[in-house]
Amino acid sequence: MTGILALGYLLGPGPQTSLEDFLRHIDHAVKVCGIDHVGLASDFSIRGIQATATRESWYLPRLRVFKPSYRVRWPPWIAELDRPERFRTVAHALARRGYKAAEIEKILGLNWLRYFREVFGV
Question: Pick from 77, 95, 81, 1: which is nearest to 39 by CA?
């Protein structure tokens, strides 16, 4: 499984990483890994990073811990994906790109469920 993370500095070369950049990463992962092995990796609050983080509480600690090659930037979020409706936004965007409903469902979570069942027997 590969998870596509919604942190702009991990996806795009510049500070204005967009939903389009995020979708290109999904497309690439699907081409490389196959539709059954791609999922979303959103390991931050459903409210988003901007709602809870400040430059001092989020960015500065990461500068001290992460390697320079990570190119951590502020702000870290992708505007279209930093709100509670992020999964709906991704689903609609994938549909516009030609993904079928069953494929979108896999990317949004079914692939992770299958993976966890296979690995952990849950």
Answer: 1
| 25 contacts 2 by C-beta, under 8 angstroms | no
Task: List, for residues 34-79, the tens digit of each pLDDT value.
Answer: 999 999 997 778 888 888 899 999 999 999 999 988 888 888 889 8
Cα angle: 103, vertex 11, 106; to 5 degrees: 15
The yes-or-no verdict on residue 122 having pLDDT over 80 is no
Looking at the chain, the number of H-run helices and the number of E-run strands are 6, 2
The answer to whether 26 and 107 are in contact (CB under 8 A) is yes
Distance CA 99, CA 122 (A): 28
User: First vs last Cα of the chain: how many Å apart?
Assistant: 17
User: How large is the average pLDDT for residues 111-122?
Assistant: 94
Contact 38, 105 (CB under 8 A): no
Question: Which residue is listed with tokens 């430059």?
Answer: 55
- Is a pLDDT exceeding 90 seen at residue 7? no
Task: Give dist(CA 91, CA 94) in Å, integer.
Answer: 5
